[in-house]
User: Fold these one by one.
Assistant:
Number 1:
Amino acid sequence: MSYVTKSPWIIHYDGSSCNGCDIEVLACLTPMYDVERFGIINTGNPKHADVFLVTGSINEQNKPVVKQIYEQMPEPKVVVAVGICATSGGIFAECYNVQGGTDMVIPVDVYVPGCAARPEAIIDGVVKGLGVLAEKRAAMEKK
Amino acid sequence: MDRITYIIAAVIAYLVLAPLAGGILAGVDRRITARMQGRFGPPILQPFYDVFKLFEKEGITVNKVQDFYVFCFLIFIIITGCFFFAGGDLLLIIFTLTLASVFLIVAAFSSNSPYAQVGAERELLQMMAYEPMVLITAVGFYLVYGSFNIYDIVAGSLPAVIYLPGIFIGFVYILTIKLRKSPFDLSMSHHAHQELVKGLTTEFSGKTLGLIEIAHWYENIFLLGFVYIFFAWNVGWSPVFAVLICLVIYFLEIFIDNNEARVKWQLAINSSWIAAASLGFVNMLVLYFLVL
Amino acid sequence: MSTLFFLILFPLVIAFALLVLKADQARGFVVKAAAAVTAVGSIYLAWQYFGTNGDYFAYESEAVTYGMMAVEIGLAIFIFVLGVKYKKYLASLLVIIQAPIMVWFELSYGHGIEVENNLFIDKFSIIMALIIGIIGSLICVYALGYMKDFQHHHHDQPDRRPLFFFLLFLFLSAMFGIVFSNNLVWLYFFWEITTLCSFLLIGFTKTKEATDNAFRAIIMNLLGGLAFVLAIVFMGVYYQTIELNKMLAMGMLGYSVVIPAALLAFAGITKAAQMPFSSWLLGAMVAPTPVSALLHSSTMVKAGVYLIVKLAPVLGLNPAGIMVMMVGGITFMMASFVAINQSNAKRVLAYSTVANLGLIVACAGIGSPAAVWAAIMLIIFHAVAKSLLFLCVGTAEHNIGSRDIEDMDGLFGKMPRIASYMIVGICGMFLAPFGMLISKWAAMKAFVDSGNIFLVVFIVFGSAATLFFWTKWLGKIMAIMARRENIESHVHSEEIMVLSTLATLTVLVCLIFPVLSAFMVVPYLASIYASVAPLAISSGNLYIMAAMLALVILMVIVGYGKTNKKIVPIYMAGVNAGDDLSFNGSIGQTLSVSLRNWYMESYFGERKMNIIGVLSTSVIIVGIFSLLLGGVL
């Protein structure tokens, strides 16, 4: 049994979001939803994190940043794109600065649509991500 | 039980049981904190899950030496604890603890990372803040029992706290710093999870971070041990009493943690040094007159 | 006895030889050979008198006494003239007062006093002789390479290196004289010679700053010299003896030698740059680094504490002892505070020296056997580690062009061996399980036992401060910075040899110190004290410390620098430019990361700390002397 699923630490990055999804992510940490029950901690440090929550779309300026943060995370790791902007650019998809969703830069494992994505949906997305995490850990172990 | 057997038994018990006890205490800490915040909280065994997960992560590091320093930190924290529970010399324990802490600070410095470096400077400041009080505590015990050895201190005829009330209060004050609780969690924060990103521990990951967590468990146990020796004396039931007091003090620390906001470093060092200079100094003065 | 003469006269002869040798090659050869001979000589001395409990030698000679007097008069005139020339009239004044008193005394009373033993040797003197002979010689060898660079940097000025090396060896000779003299007049003579050497060496670069600082040093030391003279006069007039051992014996029998003890302690305080006289040592940092290492950390200032430690049996709970204790304690705490605020490496080392000397002085002031044990161990460890640090800083300075700690980041990449030696030196100064920590431990216990809670407070806060400034320096040099080019090939081989020897010595001394204690220090204590109570630190703990050191060394050898983990960049909020040294700032700029240590000006500002230290110590000294004067009148 892998312990990664029992203690998933998240890092949350805001690409170019309106902050709506960010606030919903933080709301998950509040007493109302309390994700710490699942051992989830919001660590701001990629080196400590297992789950990368991205909100907002990708533009030229944050492309290298997202890539760098992703690369500094140790395996096994999953990426959860929270909100429709992170999934595909959302209603801003045709703006001149928006290049698209997170999967333009890094491989995404779970998409959580919504504008803003609801805390329940986010939690659900993270839990699905844990499943992927467990698979990745098993693959790592086989190597 | 003769001395040698006692030492071996104590050391083995410490080596095996301390991380378990420390981890459980950490879990209880998080649970109580969550309840105080109106949340549900993680399972009591969560710290263990965290550490096991960290050991499962890919091994990455920023240079070739920082993991070595962290490993030295762990080894010397364990050695400090072993000295403590073997009933050794208080000053030896304090100095070995200093050595261990310097290893951790140097590990953070070695990364040359902005967050880690500021975290390390703050950690160093915290050390400077609590060092006087800790040394005065040792001196206080010596003045009462004529010996720095813990073995002699717990065999006294009265609990130490009766002679050392001021020093005890001062010690609990700086215990907040050593346990890394608000308002003095400047260098790396457990509960708020982020201070200067992760402060001192920013560049550590995976197994290394896990080792630091385990080292903190070992450390917390012997820090509570310090509280214990204030309340132990040569009566049969005193160990139980002292352990209860330790738990009460630990709960008090959790309470303070949840009520206080982190302070600026100036306040941290000012208040700690004033506590040492006033509570510690006055207590020692009174003791000198009593001894005379 | 011939070994003693050899050790005093041989460096003197070499000094004069070096004064005339102008060629680099010849000088190099002579210095290295002389250093080796001196070192071997002191080791031979240690072996020869290994079992001594204090051997005293008569050696009568009118010629020597008159010769010394002639040299003293000559020196007095020399300093007087220089004082007038540079408008430092205080120096001239002090010399005008001091020299005639000495001469009058020697011609009137001095004749009548019968001196039984002029020279002596005991285990403490052996320890000092080993420090002077081994460490002093190593520093002279280091100076060869260093002064070559120095001359290169100052190529527009005349090459006065013959004078420089003359003064170094003259100084070594005088130091041997100090630790072998039992006759206080002889001691005074050699003492003043070291003052002269210090004066000329501080002013070596002949800049205005150097000259000012040289005069500051000599004025403060002359003040101490004056006190020395008064002490001799007192002993001669009241007790008809000018021998140190007789003075100590009288004191322990119950005769009051408080006044000469206080005066001699005052002389020691000025020589050891205790507050309020610490500014001369700070000013002396303008001199070339070998000077700072030799005179102003490991040897000359040790003469000051040597005298005070020798006086320890007659210090304790009397006015002289209390003055010494408190001055030492306050100096330790305040100097440690100021060191936090300094970024110039030599100034940090200077303040740290002042602080550690304060600790030694405070231990001597307490006067108990445990305290004196701590004092002697502190002398040994401090001499080795501090000289190592000064020389490392000197070498680093010549190669990176700065002596500021803030410019030493990444030193590990640029000069790995120098950085390693510096690390050994720094750890040796404050960290368990190295020796200084052990001595500080013993000192702490001695302070607690003495009943002086103020001392306990001083050492506790001072220790916290020393922890801070050493660790932040340590962190600075241990930072692994990317892309550091190794420039170590430019360092002279003599410098590397000396540094590695000193680093090895630092570690070795920490490993064998239980042996040192049992065979040298404890017998010395047994010979001067009636009963030697159990030492501050149990032998069990001493061996635990040695074992911990062995463990650290083993761990470093086995595990350092070995990892097969993937190396990733440091975290810079995702905008790391890729090289760990700079990041992508706003508007497309690339900015470099700059990390600075904390200096806490508002807490530990130099001016504020110095004012507090100087005021409090001055009040104590003036107060004690007023008390004593009142008692006499």
Number 2:
Amino acid sequence: MTHTRKRNLISKNLSLFITLGLFVLLFASVMVIGPMRSNRFKYLPVFFNLLNDNAYLLIASVGIMFVLITGNIDISVASTLAFSAVFSAFLLRLLWPAWLVIPVVLAIGFSFGALMGFLIEKFKLQSFIVTLAGLFFLRGMCSVVSKESIPIENGFYSKVAQAKITFGSIHSYGKVNIYLYGFVAIAVVLIALYILRYSKFGRCVYAIGGSEQSARLMGLPVRKVKILVYAISGFCASLGGVLFSFYTLAGYGLQNLGLELDAISSAVIGGTMLSGGVGSVVGTAFGVMIQGTIQTIVTLLNLNAWWTKVTVAALLCIFVILQRLIAIRNDK
Amino acid sequence: MKSIVRKLTKTQIFWPLVIFLGILALNGLISGGSFFRLQIVDGHLYGRIIDIFRNGSKLMLLALGMTMVLATGGTDISVGSVMAISGAVACTIIEGSLFPFANGSVVFAIAAAIFAGVLCGSWNGFLVSRIQMQPIVATMILLVAGRGIAQLICKGRIVTINSPPFYFINGGYILGLPFPVYIVVALSLLVLLVVRKTAFGLYVESVGCNGEASRYSGINSARIKFFIYILCGTLAAVAGLIESAGIKGADANNAGLMIELDAILAVAIGGSSLSGGRFSLLSSLVGALIIQSITTSILSLGIAPEVNLVVKAVVVIAICLAQSPVFQQSISAFRAKIKKQEVVA
């Protein structure tokens, strides 16, 4: 009994260990390549820029992880993110105040996700068709709102975009900036961690992923949770969009094409099972960091930016195959 | 007589065909008849209708493959990227930057591009049937990475080529009809022959209805799925060839961009279930023509083409809802309620 429990513990965390190891390995190679490529290369800023530059992806990935844990899929996150950025830029250009724009955009993301969840859950439509339609719908809405990139000149936005805390000195390990949106991402990670670990809702998410049938028979509110999970994913994507508009101070309809792959692979690299029931926020955060590191390496080596996507896709494949192998081993 | 009409309206292809003819008629009315005008210039037929068939050829090919994939209960959203890869491979070979030993041979380029499609399809098939990934995730990998691969083949450029024999794939005419029409007819006949004159189609439907049950009854579900994804990738590669012959080059960023939804929509409009099982290839072909004619009329009416995506997304959901048994039940329950109220009143 204790033997099997120990084995379970190892195999449950095996993919997390692999993720951690991969991150350390990749970051080590950044530390090797970096000084060769640039003599102003400093380790600490590079590490913390992983957080700054990927804050929006981190939030979107955490959101999509909720859906993945229930064993479903949402591929509309990239469009939701882009639409939120474009729409908030559009509203700001109409001189709406920032305190009104942000809640409105977040509410749209939340309700659009909830609507998709409702269609899937109530009418038993397939999740890939509904979220694919959602993807195209919002991408189309982006170009309906504006075909050109809209710059954001709102005072609040530029202030938030600049807000940061700085520590370290230029001489030793480098000066570190952590921007406000980095902290927002950390906050989202902590909240998600709490919800998934300790709330009734979070445990229900895992239960549905483990076996929807059993969850239903246990009397858990399956329908409500599944709709809410899509709403969370939509909300996180639009929050990511808001952060992205802080980050770039512009909204453009063709932004972040293919981000859904990044978000899903972050979650999967972080140990989330596509078949549902397994997944951790910490792992997902490391999944995002791994992608950021790959991006850094590609930039350092001055390669075609598409190498990032190709590498990430390859990693996703490797991890899914790995998960299959682990699952097969556990079955034995 | 009545029973014949009833039989006709019961066939899956009836309503798509009616809608298609209706859209054509509407266009004809709005344009005052000029929509139907056919001209013969140098022995070639020209006209709006011919354009719909020529431009719709890509979508018809994709719809063929997508029908089969959806029938197995899967999906393939990588077709647009496979088109980009096939175009990139063909154009770089003709240009001479890829495989210089081929000396820009058009035949070699076409063969290589189609082979690339077979490879992409077998990759998707491998992930879905062997690794048992969800089809949407498995093909999403190629959707995103495929465009990257096409970019890397083109080395980030838009490749333009000068090769009249290659242009023929899109712009050529045989006996007055555009060449892509012949490609579509030939490939459709081939697929139809394989699907309906052998047991293969039955196997596909059975895998789509219940994969586990078909496995127990001795059908190799995994192998069937594998072949279907190869078929879909190959057809997408041919569509990519038509596309790149049309723009006389390869544009890795834009070739076949967002065409995946069109292909799925074509199948949905054709009336085949998106959750697997029974399918009709001919209805999907008509579905593709409907979409192409809508696109053409939106362009000719001067409505912004961006609205297209939004409208198509809504139509897909509407069709899915109409197919959903739960939705049908709640509608009929709603109707019954209204009737009851009327009776009471």
Number 3:
Amino acid sequence: MGRIGVFICWCGENIARAFDMDELTEAVAEIPGVRCAIDYKYMCSEPGQALIREKIRSEKLEAIVVASCSPHMHLKTFRAAAQAAGLNPYLVEMANIREQCSWVHEPYEDETVAKAVSIIRMTVQKVLRNRALEPIHVPLTKRALVVGGGVAGIQASLDLADSGYEVVLVEREPSIGGKMAGLSETFPTLDCSQCILTPRMVEVGQHPNIRLYTYSEVESVEGFVGNFTITIRQKARYVDIAKCTGCLECWNRCPSREAPSEFDYGLTKRKAIYVPFPQAVPARPIIDLNSCAKFLRNECGTCLKVCEAKAINFDDQDKVVTEQVGAIVVATGYRMYDIGREQENAKYTGYGEYGYGQYKDVIDSLQFERLLSASGPTGGEVKRPSDGAVPKKVVFIACVGSRDNAKGIPYCSKICCMYTAKHTMLYKHKVHDGQAYVFYMDIRAGGKGYEEFVRRAIEKDGARYYRGRVSKITEENGKLIVRGADTLTGAPVAVEADLVVLAAAMRPAIGVLELAQKIKLGYDEFGFLSESHPKLRPVETNTAGVYICGACHAPKDIPEAVAQASAAAGKVQVLFSKGELTREPEVASVNEQACAACFACVRTCPYLAIDKAEIRDRQGNLLKMTARVNPSLCMGCGTCVAVCPSKSVDLEGFSEEQIYEMVNGLI
Amino acid sequence: MPRLGVQAFSAIERQSWITMDHEESMGSAFAATSVENCYQCGKCTAGCPASDEMDFMPNQILRLVQTDDVDRAMRSRAIWLCVSCLTCTTRCPQSVDCAGVMDVLREMAAEQKTVPADVQRVLVFQRAFLDNIRRHGRTNEVELIMQFKTLGFLKDRNIRLLMKDALLAPKLMQRGKFHLRGESVRDRAVVRRIFDRCMPNAGKARMAAADEGSGSEEAV
Amino acid sequence: MMEFGYYPGCALHGSSNDYEQSVQACLKPLGVGLKELDDWLCCGATAAHTLNHMLAVSLPARNLALAERDGFADVFAPCPMCSMELIKVNRALDGNPELRKRVSEIVELPVEGKTQILNLIQVFQKIGVDQIRAAVKKPLSHVKAACYYGCLLTRPPDTLQFDDPEHPRSMETVLEALGASTVAWNYATECCGAGLTMAREELVCELSHRILTNAAAHGANCLVVACPMCHTNLDMKQADIDRRYGVHHDMVVYYLSDLVGMALGVDETELGVNKHFVVRQAGQPLESGATQTAEMQ
């Protein structure tokens, strides 16, 4: 080959301010193998691309180098341009003389120019040895897995199911609905939470395209984008759902009431056989063996007696099933920060000074939602846990855990300012002669209608906002003495409250790290799952075919979770819109004749993309073993090339010869 | 007003060197990153047992330092009403050592003689205490109390200070708690040398306390 | 026979000598020996950290150097002001060779900062709460104590790493081993006014008054402390507080070592309990000691 076209971009003045562009172009034209060297102000623009296409045709170029910015920016653009002119896109290379030269060195210095020329020469050396390649085609299973059945998971599942794809929805709890099912009313509309959610839940339960696994967890994930094999463990309910008619007589008659209710966040006790809440989907009970007298002591057995459908089965076992999917949407949601002193991770410390867990009338915000909720333990009346009295003074404390470096959480949980304002309003609507106090540091109310909502709480519903944190809460004679401050007047403030509600920080759900490791997803120091790009790719991840949405990504409210869920579904739809997947062909391949079958590459490949293969003759006799790269999995990292002692594996587009010649080109 | 170079210290094992270099201290920051971390949440104020009488709340003192208004902070009554209970430092969500900042301000205020009149008594006591230690190595309570009362009386001419607790003496004596002559260390010279290395003008502290404004005490 | 280095501090050799008497009398039957640091000096207390930061580091450092010179691995400092300052300097010296060098020069002795400093409660923990329980001769069933920790037994928590600064339980654990019961109350770690007894009497009275009031409100018949400053403010000043607020607190304030000693069968006079200002009726009534109601037998 020897007809290389080099296109040098000015990149406006990003590159041009560091070089005399004429001088650079002349120097580049001298490089052996270069047929023509052209410079232009904005190579990626339409005229720039037209220039490339024109030159490819008129100069009959065999390959091109675009000397400009990072390939992360525009490699795709220039490959498309070349392809439009009839040149194989893999005969296009980029020489980065911006990020790696003009942006980081002194302009107009001899060394700067020399470096730019070196980079270009090196790239020419490489592209001289490029081969025309075709993308690899991979079959695609057009089914999706959604992990998590909260509002985000529900939205994503419905979007995908409604567009005709089969969805496997896996939810860890016995019912879908997530945290939203337990809320009373939602901001800023004060819509009844269950009223807007349960129709969606029912839709999910009845949708022909959704296969719902509740009380189940993802056990393992194998494969790659378009071709995932998911193993799901359905935990034993001890109730046969196929036989159960949902009459719930067992739940009604169970005499045991010892275990703290998960749905009411410990405010009440629940039965041993139970449905988490009456609107559950599926509305079928489960048995908690740890509080079941029949299981523990072989007593009782009431549920067995009353079940007409004979659906109770104490011999039930977990079931393990596999599903094939092409994409995964993770929507595992959140949990509250532990305010008490017990923490599972020494990084976090609780708030001993607030007496949570010690004083019954110090509760957290989700518990308060249950008190407000019509289906809650107090039937929607605000009554405090200790004595059932209606509290006349309620103190709400913001930022408990959040924005508190000393306790381990520096971030803001985003929703607490809004739901605290909501709580004051709902409290006032129910207790007309009550007074709400809020201790806050800032008010974060950036959404649509949010600021007006908070002002309404203060101006119409009379909530008293004190700007300052609370130092300590003690209990005297049935009252909670809250010692806070108002930095705006510059004075400490003490309130004798009947009830205190703590707005605890949002943290990712328990078990998310284990799930992330199974799916090979990145996460940050707090366990929030990592998106590809915070601005431009908020629902994609760096793992192909896996998308995230909702609070598992970062603290957020319901509108955002729903929007992200639809966005994630949209990404899956883009993926599924093609007949098959195409992958970049710059993958490794093994020279099976030369391979010594030491399998060092098999062991070192980070993507588990290399298998051991047998070469047999026609009679079936084993001739030799060899390593074999799966082009569907290979990411082209080159680790195998580096470790192979017999130099039997090479990387397309980055061959050993190419690298050698590039180094030669440099020196 | 000279600006100060301080690297954070105090109760939480960081280091504080107060450099009172009048010439060199331009551009140096108070308490390094520590005071900048304060986001004025007011938790220190909320938990302070002595805040009732303070002219500036603890968070406001921090704010004054943050906004380079160290002078006003130094002239406040608040820093002398602080009881060093360390509640603020313990509960601060940003791990700002508020009690340590109070210490630094007190040291500066004492050096620069910016202590308000109605809290001077606290300074008089602390100075008398250090004087007492410098002399004996351990506190001689009777001598200390006499010195404190005398100097305090000289300051604000309040007879009650002299008379107060006079009845306490016989009660202490009855209980064997009254030591007319207290203990001293054997090696008193080393104590003096330690003091001199840390406080070159310690011996003059007594005179300085009674002698406001006159004499030019050199900065440490 | 356990032996600790002993750093009494100025208060225990001054008007809080009843605390020293108490400590010595209760540790003897437990087989613990105390060896006083030779020629120790004042730790600097509040005055040093208020007026001069180098002195606040150097005075405790000199005492640490003495402990190291005399080869003590553990030093018992009954006054939490002293123990806190000593531990603070230990931490400051840790990992800071430059400071160690500078301080060693100032105090004229090499100082590493490796000595373990123990407060009174930690001494009992080292002896072993079970051992103490086994040695009890007169269970203190009549005692309903409000354990008062004050400021410096638990703060600053990063430095001391001793007990929970919000809900400490170490003193309660010792007392329960003596057969006493303890109350849950709200002023366990609230400041009593500390060393400002002379200079800001009205503040000390206010803060101590709140403590005494809350202890009684939660059903305590005595306060238990492990700090000579707290004891002075709550005991010696109780008559002044009563006068100021028109009340009769009638609250006996024991040192923890008093109660340990009493449970082990040591006579109260040996423990110096009769030297308190507020004593209970059965004890020898001293002139200005308020008398306790017959509730305590």
